[in-house]
Specification:
It is a single chain. By secondary structure, the chain is an alpha+beta fold. It has a single domain, classed as Calycin beta-barrel core domain (Lipocalin, Beta Barrel). 21% of the residues lie in helices and 39% in strands. It is built from three helices and nine strands; from the N terminus they run H-H-E-E-E-E-E-E-E-E-H-E. It has an eight-stranded antiparallel β-barrel. 28% of the residues are buried.
């Protein structure tokens, strides 16, 4: 009996983690075609919905590079303006679904992955709108520390149409590089 409960518990945890791997909010569509190699490099976080791992951070960046095994190294950094310390998190991302679709899963904690979906991207790969696994996760990224007003308006409209509460976005300050 004890083994059956243990097996059931492990199965449920496994199913829950798999279910969140490729999750994307209802109505959101990952960019296609997508060139993951063009997406590599440094991105500045322009705006985000607050969540505990980035709380009190400014000067936040994400640097994506290719790992030898074909996964993408994710190097997130930010400056905690309360503690006056830099925070860094290293993880990895994998494409899910079709190879030319901007639907990924990312992990910073071992076998636990979460959805990372590029739902808007300009043709030059300079500006990106990222949806997480649900309406609690949203990011606007840029190759520069600012974003043109027309791109900002377009991305906010896309997010609002999907049901995001964009009034809750934190607009990131970039004062240190």
């Amino acid at each position: 009996m004890r083994n059956k409960i243990k097996t059931t518990f492990i199965s449920i945890i496994g199913l829950l983690s798999l279910g969140s791997c490729a999750s994307i909010p209802n109505g959101a569509v990952a960019v296609k075609p997508f060139d993951s190699e063009k997406y590599l490099g440094k991105w500045y976080e322009i705006a985000r919905l607050d969540f505990r791992f980035e709380r009190n951070l400014n000067n936040t960046t994400a640097n994506y590079s290719l790992n030898k095994d074909g996964t993408i190294k994710v190097d997130n950094r930010g400056y905690n303006y309360l503690t006056k310390e830099w925070k860094q998190a290293i993880g990895k991302a994998k494409l899910v679904g079709e190879p030319n679709e901007a639907k990924l899963k990312v992990s910073f904690f071992g076998p636990f992955y979460s959805g990372y979906n590029v739902i808007a991207l300009d043709t030059e790969y300079k500006y990106a709108l990222i949806a997480g696994k649900n309406l609690s996760y949203l990011w606007i990224l840029s190759r520069e520390v600012s974003i043109p007003e027309n791109i900002k308006k377009d991305y906010l409209k896309i997010a609002q149409d999907l049901g995001y509460n964009t009034s809750l976005l934190i607009w990131v300050e970039h004062t240190i590089d």
